[in-house]
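hey so i finally got around to running the thing on that chain from the lab meeting. sorry it took forever, my laptop kept dying and i had to restart like 3 times. anyway pasting the input first so we r on the same page abt which one it is
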Amino acid sequence: MPTHGGSAVLFPFANRIRNGKYEFQGRKFNLPTNKEGHAIHGLVLGREWNVERVSGFSATLSLELSNPSYPTVLEAQVTYTLRKRELHVSLSSHNKGEYDGPLVVGFHPYFNVGARWKLFHDQPVKRLNTNSHFPDGTYVDFDFNSLQTPWNFSFDDCFLGGGLLTLTGEKFSISISRENMDFFQVYNGVHAKNSVAVEPMTGAPDAYNNGIGLRVLPPGGDFHCGFELSLKIL
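ok and heres what got predicted. didnt touch it at all, straight out
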């Protein structure tokens, strides 16, 4: 594969949950863990989605999430719409269960921008300070615009804000606009090869424990988020 994982849907949590454990409204839950001993990237990575409809250059997929590691039952629909040099991705979630559900939604697109890339933003950015990947609740101002050689940095960090993001590579640039997704993760580690992942997210890593960006979906409640990519050939 030219990238590590395409553009995975991270649902109902994004990034890591420390030790795969969390407590929600007085109930304790254990999530499946990876070799690091943490839960990562949600509960639907291995799920097959149902094709709800295909029309022209748009496709809608759905699934139902019912898992003993999660307190309620969620329905999710994701729609991909392709336009000329644009891709719009939207996700809607509905709580069809009897209990509240903690929710963080993320997407994990990798971009083949080559070894030399830059990231620009039109609004201020704050980086979440972390201890071994997990936010400690503090922030620091961060300016990608001023970095002369970002490819010399190894990122696996979460950021807040930024507005319109523009990722520029050797042959093209991609603008990333987000709806209800104020956080983003930047990753260019060992799995990225010559790509970089810019991951729109609605909350922070370990949000089930630290509450940063966490949404609580009540029974019958709905949530919608998404992002749009716009491609420019250089």
